[in-house]
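Researcher: Here's a chain I'd like modeled. Treat it as a single chain, no partners, no ligands.
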Amino acid sequence: QVQLVESGGGLVQPGGSLRLSCEASGSIFSIFAMGWYRQAPGKQRELVASINSAGSTVYADFVKGRFTISRDNAKNTVYLQMNSLKPEDTAVYFCNGDIATLTPLGGIQSNYWGQGTQVTVSS
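Model: Modeled as a single isolated chain. Structure tokens:
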């Protein structure tokens, strides 16, 4: 089994910064794409940014130039550096990963979610 554990959320003033971390643990054979999603109250969950195993990134238009996604493959960890935060960035941020585990039947790739971390941008 695989677990994704996020950390780094909290309360920050508009214009401030936060860095989210998400560490994958468990019977990991290989990690493919990882990403960050967010869900604000009353809204659907939406993609914030993703990064594949080669390091190529995709960003939602509303975070381009403000957020940076990165990963440390040795630590099975993905990061989201969030700068110039706005009140509309307030949401629960979820980590997501396409991860392969090695089982007696061979490699099995599945999609996993973390439990989420709250980010609140307010003065």
